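Changelog note: in this version the structure field was regenerated for every chain. One regenerated record is shown below for reference.
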Amino acid sequence: MSDHDESRRVFLQAGGCLAMAIAAAAALPRELLARPIATVTGSGSGQERMYAIPATDGVSIDHTDGLILVRNQNHVFAFNLSCPHQNAAVRWVENAHRFQCTKHDSQYQPDGVYTSGRATRNMDRLPIRRSGASVVVSLDRLIQSDTDAAAWAAAVVTV
């Protein structure tokens, strides 16, 4: 086999793999593909922070105030950055479309619902409300799904 034939074979194999990857990505639901991760800082003083409503589905992290702002399927949530199990940070796992604890691997859906691991409840939410083109997050209260299910379910803004 000549170098030309070998190069052509490698090129065709790579092209086939690329075509399969594009086809697989096209078959994924749109919401799995549009999940950018951004760093944000809220404005405001005291115990409230204001954030622009994210234009698209995605995950924004405010390291200063220890919270995660998520837009998912026309809903905006604010979560505590810490896992409810032992307060280790949670991170967004893009390819799995979920949050995961960095210490014990507890896993959560984009809306904070617990799916597996050592944690015993959903991610803790923060009170959130809409104000024009922004959301306002209260930092003075963590809402735990197991102690206040109604408040946890209500801690969402529909956009």
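Spot check on this record: Residues 17 and 23 are 10 Å apart (CA to CA). The chain has three helices and twelve strands.
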